[in-house]
């Protein structure tokens, strides 16, 4: 066993208190006890039946939580210490802070707090508790919580009222928050704050009301806003924020007139000009391009620089591509994506030797552009694969770790959410060696979604067999074959869409491994003759893969066999991709960079890189013969000619 794992196990043996980790009390009794504890039905709880169960702490948690805020801090701290290796300790601390804070028990709150807590309400309670003990820290924290453009929880009321009474939150602060609320579209909060301003701010309020009706009036309102002009920066930042989004071209013209004559802080001026430069590029507004480029160069903001390079690519301004990439921060500039484009730009300018150097730098990375660069050099893909080996002794020890035992027990009693909380907390606090051992355990147990998330949380980037497990392989091969779809592309899409969580549900309602919308699943099911699978039937992996394969096959057919365009349509919808192709450049790489949605650009790159990895792993980690894109896909004109119906 690895030495660091031995060191980790030693304190855990103390936590176990000599109890055996197998042959524990009946899980059924534990399930019943946990349900009774949640409902506060203590008379129905058989404490003796669960006394030695590995999950007994979950019942203790509910018992102690019910006694808050009357339970004293010593009891809370003892519980936290007893369950230090479990999320129970974090939850109990958070519950105590919230309930002590609500009850006004400041000393007790501070006794259990371990620094500034997470969550706005708890932070407000924490700083309220510090009002008398450490007023300077309370004021700093309170002002930070105040300066947001949205309503804050009721837990903040006492803190804010006290700071205003003490003069720590001033009229200037009220004005600043009002302007943030304007930017956020929080008109109710904005009006409430406006009523808190005194007579010194009434002329400033008149300017706000004028601008709310007509952003173009920004060239006509006074340059000096508020007492001693202290409100100018926030007002012009808020007004230009809305103006730029509503009519960028007019906002640019207005700012060119008034900007040089306004006395603003660097923070406000930079925010205004960042927005103007960004939207000018997004909306292809060429007026004042020299001014825009000067702003991009001055701010050196990575997002602006990326957009400026993409604009140069769209214009085939190859020398500008190189110039703007060289302005990027060193770490960003060295990424495969940008080294690839340096190579492409130099190649187009006739400097093939330096271009090959840039391609070689890109080709060392395992990514879409790394693989594309390798294709340019006609060399194998750099998978950078590391082989994972965990010895049998370590595996036996890992199975006995308390957090693993609790995870297993929670899964057995039908508590997958709590099980994941235990598991991911352990991974988050693990060393790299421990994370390897936990990933191996998940792999051995067939916990696919947990395995993938463990590699992410543990930063096990080169553990490809774990990051891209052969999950549902037979279904992908079978239904991909039936639909005539590349099974490795299907695997790449499923990996990106759900990370192999068969129960994944997106905010938009997409479901399952391949994230199908219920309406799409119903329509596909009817066409396939299997009927509507319903919102839960679509979660069945085999059904989900079958329907997803058919849908992807139809998209590939729509784009004349082109998988890149089909992958983009799977994410953004075919109508958008049809529109992009009608105005697109011709080369495949330029098409990818021309996709206006960052999410879809990244999605296409990830899915195609993933399919390379999946196919290479199917060959034992050998990428020989594996292609990022087929010759036809690389040579295709990415324009309206790809549309089967146009």
Structure characterization notes:
There is one protein chain. This protein starts with a helix and ends in an 11-residue tail after the last helix. The chain is 66% helix and 0% strand. It contains 39 helices and no strands. With 646 residues, it is mostly helical. Residues 1-23 have low confidence and may be disordered.
Briefly summarize what is shown.
The protein is mainly α and 646 residues long. The chain is built from 39 helices and no strands.
Record the SSE blueprint.
Layout: H1 3-16, H2 27-38, H3 47-50, H4 56-66, H5 73-82, H6 87-103, H7 106-112, H8 120-133, H9 135-146, H10 157-165, H11 171-184, H12 187-194, H13 202-213, H14 232-246, H15 248-258, H16 266-282, H17 289-299, H18 302-314, H19 318-325, H20 330-333, H21 336-348, H22 352-363, H23 368-377, H24 392-399, H25 402-412, H26 416-428, H27 432-445, H28 448-457, H29 464-467, H30 473-483, H31 487-498, H32 518-528, H33 534-537, H34 541-558, H35 563-572, H36 574-582, H37 588-594, H38 598-618, H39 631-635
Helix pairs in contact: 2-4, 4-6, 5-6, 5-7, 6-7, 6-8, 7-8, 8-9, 8-10, 11-12, 11-14, 14-15, 14-16, 16-17, 16-18, 18-19, 19-21, 21-22, 21-23, 22-23, 24-27, 25-26, 26-28, 27-28, 30-31, 30-34, 31-38, 32-34, 34-35, 35-36, 35-38
């Amino acid at each position: 066993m690895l030495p660091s794992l031995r060191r980790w196990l030693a304190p855990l043996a103390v936590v176990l208190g000599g109890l055996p980790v197998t042959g524990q009390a009946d899980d059924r009794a534990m399930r019943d006890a946990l349900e009774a504890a949640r409902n506060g039905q203590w008379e129905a709880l058989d404490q003796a039946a669960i006394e030695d169960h590995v999950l007994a702490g979950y019942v203790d948690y509910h018992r102690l939580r019910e006694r808050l805020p009357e339970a004293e801090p010593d009891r809370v701290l003892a519980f936290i210490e007893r369950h230090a290796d479990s999320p129970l300790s974090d939850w109990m601390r958070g519950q105590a802070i919230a309930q002590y804070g609500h009850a006004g028990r400041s000393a007790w709150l501070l006794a259990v707090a371990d620094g500034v807590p997470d969550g706005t309400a708890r932070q407000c309670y924490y700083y309220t508790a510090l009002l008398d003990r450490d007023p300077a820290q309370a004021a700093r924290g309170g002002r930070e919580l105040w300066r947001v453009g949205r309503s804050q929880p009721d837990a903040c009321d006492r803190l804010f009222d006290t700071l205003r009474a003490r003069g720590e939150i001033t009229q200037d602060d009220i004005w600043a928050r009002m302007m943030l609320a304007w930017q956020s579209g929080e008109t109710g909060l904005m009006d409430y704050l406006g009523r808190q301003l005194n007579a010194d701010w009434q002329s400033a309020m008149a300017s706000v009301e004028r601008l709310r009706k007509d952003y173009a009036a920004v060239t006509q309102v006074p340059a000096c806003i508020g007492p001693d002009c202290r409100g100018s920066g926030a007002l012009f930042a808020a007004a230009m924020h809305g103006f730029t989004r509503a009519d960028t071209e007019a906002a640019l013209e207005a700012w060119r007139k008034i900007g040089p004559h306004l006395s603003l802080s660097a923070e406000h001026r930079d925010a205004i000009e960042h927005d103007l430069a960004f939207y000018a590029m997004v909306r292809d507004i060429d007026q004042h391009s020299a001014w825009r480029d000067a702003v991009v160069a001055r701010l050196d903001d990575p997002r602006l620089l990326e957009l400026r390079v993409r604009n140069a690519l769209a214009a085939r301004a190859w020398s500008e591509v190189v110039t703007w990439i060289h302005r990027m921060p060193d770490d960003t500039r060295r990424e495969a994506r940008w080294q690839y484009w340096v190579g492409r730009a130099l190649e187009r300018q006739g400097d093939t030797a330096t271009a090959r150097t840039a391609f070689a730098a890109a080709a060392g990375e395992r990514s879409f552009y790394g693989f594309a660069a390798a294709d340019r050099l006609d060399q194998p893909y750099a998978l950078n694969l590391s082989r994972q080996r965990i010895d049998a002794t370590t595996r036996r020890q890992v199975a006995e770790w308390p957090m693993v035992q609790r995870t297993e027990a929670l899964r057995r009693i039908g508590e997958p959410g709590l099980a994941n909380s235990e598991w991911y907390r352990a991974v988050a606090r693990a060393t790299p060696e421990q994370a390897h051992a936990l990933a191996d355990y998940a792999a051995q147990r067939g916990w696919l979604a947990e395995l993938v998330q463990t590699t992410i949380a543990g930063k096990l980037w080169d553990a490809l067999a774990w990051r891209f497990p052969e999950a549902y392989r037979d279904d992908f091969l079978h239904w991909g074959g039936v639909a005539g779809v590349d099974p490795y592309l299907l695997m790449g899409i499923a990996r990106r869409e759900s990370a192999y969580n068969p129960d994944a549900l997106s905010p938009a309602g997409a479901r399952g491994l391949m994230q199908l919308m219920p309406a799409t699943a119903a329509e596909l099911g009817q066409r396939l003759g299997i009927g509507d699978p319903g919102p839960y039937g679509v979660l069945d992996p085999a059904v989900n893969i079958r329907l997803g394969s058919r849908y992807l096959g139809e998209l590939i057919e729509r784009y004349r066999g082109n998988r890149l365009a089909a992958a983009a349509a799977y994410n953004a919808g075919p109508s958008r991709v049809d529109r992009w192709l009608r105005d697109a450049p011709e080369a495949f790489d330029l098409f990818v960079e021309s996709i206006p949605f960052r999410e879809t650009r990244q999605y296409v790159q990830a899915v195609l890189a993933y399919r390379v990895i999946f196919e290479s792993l199917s060959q034992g980690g050998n990428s020989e013969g594996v292609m990022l894109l087929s010759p036809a896909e690389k040579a295709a004109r990415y324009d309206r000619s790809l549309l089967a119906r146009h």
